[in-house]
Design goal:
Blueprint lengths: L8 H8 L13 E9 L9 E10 L2 E11 L7 H7 L12 H12 L3 E4 L2 H14 L9 E3 H6 L4 H7 L5 H8 L9 H19 L4 H8 L5
Parallel strand pairs: 1-4, 4-5
Antiparallel strand pairs: 1-2, 2-3
Helix pairs in contact: 1-3, 7-8
Length: 218
């Protein structure tokens, strides 16, 4: 017989956090708004350089639970520096990819994950987990790009087109973009936008919110 695969405690703790499911009401749930900065947009070959996350409970951002980590990577792209400014030989403290994932999974315990163009961030995280011999994320996922579209009038949709950037959301909701293209800065913009979206959509339950998203689930 094949031996059952064993996983590290941090993964087991993460999985166990979902044993009782998640709450039905939006106000009762923990949302983790997450962003990654990467070496490029090739999900197969590029790597995560930083992860930023903010926790929302009862429609309030919890600053004390915010985190941002920078990740050691051998793979690097000079072109991506023009976007995020993370230098290969920069002075910022970096940690190993597994340690970064460990921190991220702790924050994601029993949470709904929220991100802008979420499929990209989740795919990059899942690829990183695979490199560590771990399964994919278990969290339910909401995409602020898709939800944002549900709040717009026909005229506004014509203005923005079919692809909604984070800058579009920042413009619409008058969110400062001083830390744009940092993982925590973009997570902050996304979090504020998400709260605005919730106030517009007024979902009756978490299931209602997922129906309105309707694009990407794990």
């Amino acid at each position: 017989m094949w031996a059952k695969k064993t996983y590290p405690n941090y993964w087991n703790n993460y999985i166990a956090s979902f044993d009782n499911g998640i709450q039905r009401e939006v106000k009762d749930n923990k949302f983790v708004v997450l962003d990654t900065e990467t070496t490029g947009f090739d999900v197969k070959n590029d790597r995560i350089l930083s992860i930023g996350a903010l926790v929302i409970n009862n429609k309030e951002i919890k600053p004390s639970e915010a985190f941002e980590v920078y990740v050691e990577q051998e793979h690097y792209s000079k072109e991506s520096v023009k976007i995020h400014g993370i230098l290969k030989k920069g002075k910022v403290k970096r940690i190993a990819e597994e340690e970064a994932l460990k921190n991220t999974l702790k924050t994601l315990e029993q949470a709904v994950l929220v991100a802008h163009h979420a499929m990209y961030d989740v795919t990059m995280l899942n690829n990183a987990l695979k490199r560590q011999g771990l399964p994919k994320l278990k969290n339910k996922v909401l995409d602020t790009s898709t939800l944002f579209a549900k709040t717009l009038s026909i005229r506004e949709k014509e203005k923005y087109g079919s692809h909604f950037t984070l800058d579009n959301l920042a413009e619409k909701y008058k969110i400062p973009v001083n830390d744009r293209h940092t993982a925590l800065g973009d997570a902050y913009i996304t979090a504020i936008a998400f709260l605005h979206i919730l106030s517009k959509l007024k979902p009756a339950s978490l299931n209602d919110l997922f129906k309105r998203d309707g694009v990407f689930k794990l």
